[in-house]
Amino acid sequence: MSRTLYDCLNARTSPTHIYCQKGKMLGTANSGFIELIRLYRGNPLVQAICQKCEDFDEMDGGTVFPKDRGWLNLKDLKESK
Ligand code: SF4
Q1: Considering the entire predicted model, what is its pTM?
Q2: Mean pLDDT throughout 50-56?
Q3: Best of 50, 57, 59, 64 for a ligand 1 pocket test (most atoms within 8 Å of beta carbon)
């Protein structure tokens, strides 16, 4: 199973972004961070740099499963209309 940003204590959020507290470059652009909307949507947030990162700090409780990711469940929102 791939490491995700949900699994590492060094993955932090600002009001608009997800960034690495250890200063690692996240995302595919040169920004070094990821837009927070991806967290809202519960996207997988798998980053290549995390897979063999020596600073990976696993959260207590292990992996956050897909059903527990994000605050917006688009499927539930559509069904409630
Ligand atoms: S695994 Fe490494 S690069 Fe990824 S969030 Fe954690 S410390 Fe940062």
Answers
A1: 0.79
A2: 96
A3: 50
